[in-house]
Amino acid sequence: MKLQETLLCGLGPLSGSGAGHLALHDLKTGTTLSTYKQSTSAVHNITLVESQNGQGGYILSSQTDKPIINVYHFQKVASGVMLNSWEAHFRRIHVLKFTTDDAAIVSASDDSGVSVWSVASLIDNQLQHELPVPYCNLSDHTLPVLDVVCGSGLFPGCRLVTCSQDHSVKVWDLSSPSRPLLGTFTFPHAIQMITMDSAQRVIFAASGAGHVHRINLFKPDENHRSMGNTSSSEAEIAIGQPITSLCISYTCTNLLVGTASGSILVYDLESHQLLRSIATHKDKGLAVVYLRCMLKPIDHDTKEKDPIPLRPVIPFQRMRDLKARETHQLMMLIPPQFEEPKLQGFNSDELLAGQAYFLNSESHSRRMGMGAGSNARVTELEEQVAQLRAALGQAKGINDSMWETMVHTLIPKSNPTPGGDYMAVDSSPAGRKRARKAN
Length: 439
Description:
Elements: E1 5-12, E2 21-26, E3 32-37, E4 46-49, E5 58-62, E6 69-73, E7 93-98, E8 104-109, E9 114-118, H1 119-122, E10 136-138, E11 145-150, E12 159-164, E13 168-173, E14 181-186, E15 191-196, E16 202-207, E17 211-216, E18 236-238, E19 243-248, E20 254-259, E21 264-268, E22 274-278, E23 287-295, H2 322-327, H3 348-410, E24 421-425, E25 434-438
Antiparallel strand pairs: 1-2, 1-23, 2-3, 4-5, 5-6, 7-8, 8-9, 9-10, 11-12, 12-13, 13-14, 15-16, 16-17, 17-18, 19-20, 20-21, 21-22, 24-25
């Protein structure tokens, strides 16, 4: 199947009652691929599990006017057993986000606090009778936290980005033991939602006044200017209407902005130029409350003859039941095992004999080559030794002649002074010996 980037958007009324729905669009052309009706959701009320590993995915959306979660075939809800339930914050929880590896849950509340919870500790059977303890608490905001973005990487080696009504966007590092605050960015208006590209290079923050601010997490090269490069004055995009959703495309080339009027605006990520607008849902009294880019699901094409298997979706429990938890068995789909082909017609003895033959032949030829090279090297070294000996003899003869000249010229031939020291010189050809003797 040809890879195709799609856009899943959720539409719902901002205030009052009304019937919303979900829609799947082709991001390149804006064509509507599918529509999922009878879903009236608000901001942060929709999530998606993509189709992968040979199994179909789901869209889950909670309703604003009913205590119902709609599940659309489009991860895996193996059972409805409630694994844990606890009071995480003092006030209403505004947003819940999983890390990219699903190893932790990040909760942000109206009490201005952000808590990070380890999924392994939440579902541990040994800790079911204890109050869950968060992995860490991030408490630098002063007003309700409205959105959270989890960066790329495995937990806890990842970063978090939070925005709040206190007009700030903060970047946190979970890999360090102290969980430091890496940076704070302030704006003239309260930030309602944020998004970050997968490479963690840039953050886009949307305010309630209809502006999208760009935050670069890198230092731009001041000496390099290219087409599409933005200056400091172009770090803000004026939408002109309330912003209700924000996301970056799957290829990290486009910025998508959902508005309260139902239109979806597609901007170039670098130049901030408006490329096109998807106006299928415009002026219908619905706002775009959810945006998510992904590849087209493999189970979306109805022309496939073999449908992708789906796991059953069982209603969620409303209370914790220890008995149901103990009797529940986690079902796993084991991939097929393929046996490696074996060699036919050969046994281990024959293979070892052939290996020994080639190894012995190679070592013999290597020894022959090394022997011929060694003989040539020995001959060359002997010639160098003979040359060095001849040069040494010449140098010794020059030294002897210089010594005789110095002795006959500077040292008097008369007897030495009584009581003084004298030097005896041996002028034999074998060498010269000097001795000092005192009277």
